[in-house]
């Protein structure tokens, strides 16, 4: 975060250097512009973070698929070695005319070779998860549909959560929303359908719908940090600073050690004209973390406005 906003520090240093020459109004404009740029940089940083997380998730899925393949190869070799031992014992039992022992050993060999027999529903579910590991989401979705078709009455919340997730991974957000909505109806007290809807609405840049989904999460889990932060950030993006402050305030009441959220709350107050309250929080944050750029830029903007006001007097 510090490096991402290094340009803001340079901006303020430049303002300080020309303070003697620049008219007070230009200083205020420069400080205000820097503050607006900071807010935009926060939004851009959030978007970048989501992109990086997506890349990490995709990379993890690829590595997981590779690890699963390696594991299966190892298991197959171990199984083959075990079967060879059992077959040697079975041959010995047959040579010694130990019929019952030979029969038991044959049953063990068959079980180890083939495993417990899967029914049709299980085969489709296994195929769905394996296809997801390989990032073949269309095949994973088709396998779910086949499992439902065979099972008859399995079109429940689990199924729709699974479909919602797979449609989300395949970037078919409209179908994902449809599945998550069905899941929310089938499991009205579940949080996961609304988390899925929230992710879809964020991906679709549907701010109001994303806020509504996050609020439903808070109805079920009032202390949910992620939902509170999402609502606060979206309100801030809409320049609805009063509502943004409400949700930032909810976070710091639960996590008073969260200096970045304290800084975001102070920015809301500054935007609302609550200059003294904002300045006090910025100073409190900087007392603990002198390099906290949110507080640095906020305090610099307030200080510049105060100096301009004093010069006019």
Could you explain how this protein is built, in words?
With 313 residues, the chain is mainly alpha-helical. It contains 14 helices and no strands. It starts with 5 loop residues before the first helix and ends with a helix.
Short summary:
With 313 residues, this protein is mainly alpha-helical.
What are the salient characteristics of this protein?
single chain; 313 residues; mainly alpha; 14 helices; disordered N terminus
Shape: elongated
Distance between the termini: 38 Å
What class, by secondary structure content?
A: mainly alpha
Tell me the fraction of residues in β-strands, as a range: under 5%
Residues in helices, as a percent range: over 70%
For the CA atoms, what is the radius of gyration?
Answer: 30 Å
Largest sheet: none
- The chain-level mean pLDDT equals 85
Order of helices and strands: HHHHHHHHHHHHHH
Secondary structure blueprint with pairings:
Elements: H1 6-17, H2 24-95, H3 99-114, H4 120-133, H5 137-151, H6 157-169, H7 173-186, H8 192-203, H9 207-220, H10 225-237, H11 241-254, H12 259-271, H13 275-288, H14 293-312
């Amino acid at each position: 975060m510090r490096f991402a906003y290094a340009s803001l520090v340079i901006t303020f240093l430049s303002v300080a250097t020309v303070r003697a020459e620049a008219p007070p109004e230009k200083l205020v404009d420069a400080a205000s512009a820097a503050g607006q740029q900071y807010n935009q940089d926060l939004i851009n940083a959030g978007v970048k973070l989501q992109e990086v997380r997506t890349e990490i998730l995709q990379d993890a899925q690829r590595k997981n698929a590779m690890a699963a393949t390696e594991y299966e190869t190892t298991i197959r070799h171990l199984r083959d070695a075990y079967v060879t031992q059992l077959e040697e014992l079975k041959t010995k039992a047959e040579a010694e005319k130990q019929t019952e022992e030979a029969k038991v050993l044959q049953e063990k060999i068959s079980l180890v070779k083939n495993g417990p027999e899967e029914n049709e529903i299980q085969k489709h579910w296994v195929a769905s998860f394996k296809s997801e590991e390989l990032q073949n989401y269309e095949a994973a979705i088709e396998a779910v549909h086949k499992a439902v078709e065979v099972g008859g009455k399995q079109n429940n919340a689990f199924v729709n959560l699974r479909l919602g997730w797979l449609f989300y991974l395949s970037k078919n957000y409209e179908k994902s929303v449809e599945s998550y909505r069905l899941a929310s109806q089938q499991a009205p007290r579940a949080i996961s359908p609304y988390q899925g809807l929230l992710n879809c609405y964020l991906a679709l840049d549907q701010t109001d719908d994303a806020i509504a989904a996050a609020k439903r999460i808070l109805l079920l889990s009032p202390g949910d940090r992620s939902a509170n932060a999402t609502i606060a950030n979206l309100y801030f993006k809409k320049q609805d600073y009063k509502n943004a402050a409400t949700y930032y305030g909810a976070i710091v009441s639960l996590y008073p050690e969260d200096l970045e959220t304290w800084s975001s709350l102070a920015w809301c107050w500054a935007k609302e004209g609550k200059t003294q309250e904002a300045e006090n929080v910025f100073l409190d944050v900087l007392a603990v973390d002198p390099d906290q750029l949110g507080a640095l830029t906020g305090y610099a903007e307030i200080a510049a406005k105060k100096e301009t006001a004093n010069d006019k007097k």
